What does this fold into?
Amino acid sequence: MKRIGIEAFLAWAYRDELPKAETSGGGDWVVPSAGGWDAVSRQGELMADLVNDGRINSFGVVPLPASYGAPPHPDALTLHAAVSELAAMELDVPDGWSPLAGLGLSPVETQDAVRRAMPRVSAAGRDGRPRFCQKPAELLRRHAILGGAPSWEFDRPKARFVSSHGKPLWFRQRPVEGAFGKLHMVEVDGYNARAGRPYAGAYRKTILVPDPAEAVPMRAEYEVWHAALGVVVDTLAASCALHDHAVVMTERPARPWE
It folds into this structure.
């Protein structure tokens, strides 16, 4: 049996073998049950020798006309079945999860960035626990065709003073009477335009550029993709259904930013 890494095995299946399957007869085509991402951008931008009408086969890829009549390799079919099983896969977001190591952030900055990004990264499951909303099967198919892994590298953020049109913004706190006469502090403009200077006690604020919250969805996607690779490798090993390939896990680390 040929020893092969899971990334190369996925690329071989989705770029070389599964496109051998024709669309269904009569001019119709089969929409994949677990497909998405616009049939991996119709695959037409990624490979040259494709049909020109964008029809996809039952594996969610555009057929190669030069391969019509040659069935996909059985190992490619076995892999596709294992990838399709990931449609039901749910990954819990671990307690205290944070993918922002290596960016030089303080604990407070890290917590704030993760908190702001979580609605883009996760959704509550039936038990109320947050689960990653990325789709593992779609991620594997996408990068099998595109090549490479989800991007995770991010520039180290730097603090910048808040400004508008190149001019510094100032802030101050002032008491405002609320319900039942209770006073509470609100933040208001701290610049005295009439006097041409900040009010006494006014302060400036800083923001991080680039916003580290933007790194959270990128790295969440990488983690889900990497975890899905591991599940598929384990599934294939347990099934003993491959004929000509022995698949091994990728050498990429699960969290390269650490």
Q: What stands out?
A: Helices lie at 6-17, 37-41, 74-84, 107-121, 136-146, 215-239. The chain is about 30% helix and 15% strand.
